[in-house]
Design brief:
CATH topology: TIM Barrel
Helix content: 25-40%
Radius of gyration: 16 Å
CATH class: Alpha Beta
Strand order of the largest sheet: 3-2-1-4-5-6-9-13-14-15
Shape: globular
Strand content: 15-25%
CATH architecture: Alpha-Beta Barrel
Number of domains: 1
Number of helices: 8
Largest sheet: 10 strands, mixed
Distance between the termini: 8 Å
CATH superfamily: Aldolase class I
Length: about 260
């Protein structure tokens, strides 16, 4: 079980937001925290502390007027810590190599491979050919609908028809090196983790999985470790004192 740090970038600034509040219209989101520091500040910190596999996430779509500012911040972080960070947000087979060349260890992909509500297997194959399976992370972030978890795309706004279960994780694992999973219904709320989702993910044995969403205290973290049996990595955003929360970064950085 390892701590995977994050650098979320929205409207050109490092932020923590309530995940389900993010909309493309007017680039709006409910903010928990907005940093005065640039993204490379956090990249240098994670490098100094020996934390690998953190996530740099561009939260603006390419159509946004803020996209270039957000992308510039992301590239700053990747260049500050070459090989130490993953990057996601608007990644396609056409631009994946650009981010790898900028210093990303992996590219994180969601919407590109989940289009029209279905899995686009040919696009997964194309990504693997472009940068190699060992550099691809598939983001299978999900929300609950009718009592079951479905993968969501477009900055968590759009439900796909793909249910998240052990079989679909097994099939997708053939095309990636890791999974990243946000429990979107609790993301950014520091209100406790999604036990049922964690149990589903813990059954997946093929490749590493990082869980995000709802860890709001050290007690939540202990609970997460218990129900995941230490099989999953984790990330903490809004609840971390680094981003205005109460969980001591100095404590969680020991999980590496």
């Amino acid at each position: 079980m390892r701590f995977r740090p994050c650098i979320d970038i929205h409207n050109g600034k490092v932020k923590q937001i309530v995940g389900g509040s993010l909309t493309d219209e007017n680039d709006q989101a409910v903010e928990n925290f907005s940093s005065v520091q640039n993204a490379d500040y956090f990249a240098h910190l994670y490098q100094k502390d020996g934390l690998k596999g953190g996530h740099v996430i561009l939260l603006n779509p390419p159509s946004s007027g803020y996209y270039e500012q957000t992308k510039m911040q992301a590239v700053k972080a990747l260049m500050a810590y070459p090989g130490g960070l993953q990057v996601g947000g608007g990644i396609t087979a056409e631009n994946a190599a650009e981010y790898i060349e900028a210093g990303a260890s992996h590219v994180i992909v969601t919407s590109y491979v989940f289009q029209d509500g279905e899995i686009q297997w040919d696009r997964m194959e194309g990504l693997c050919k472009e940068v190699g399976k060992e550099r691809v992370v598939i983001d299978v972030s999900c929300r609950k609908r009718d009592g079951e978890y479905y993968i969501v795309t477009n900055r968590w706004q759009t439900f796909t028809q793909v249910k998240l279960d052990a079989e679909i994780l097994r099939r997708i694992s053939a095309y990636c090196d890791e999974f990243l999973v946000h429990g979107v219904d609790v993301e950014g709320k520091a209100s406790g983790v999604e036990d049922e989702l964690i149990e589903i993910l813990s059954e997946q044995q093929q490749i590493p999985v990082t869980y995000a969403g709802g860890i709001g205290s050290l007690e939540d973290l202990r609970h997460f470790r218990e129900i995941s049996h230490g099989k999953l990595d984790f990330t903490i955003g809004s609840a971390l004192d680094l981003f205005g929360g109460t969980i001591p970064y100095q404590e969680v950085r020991q999980y590496r």
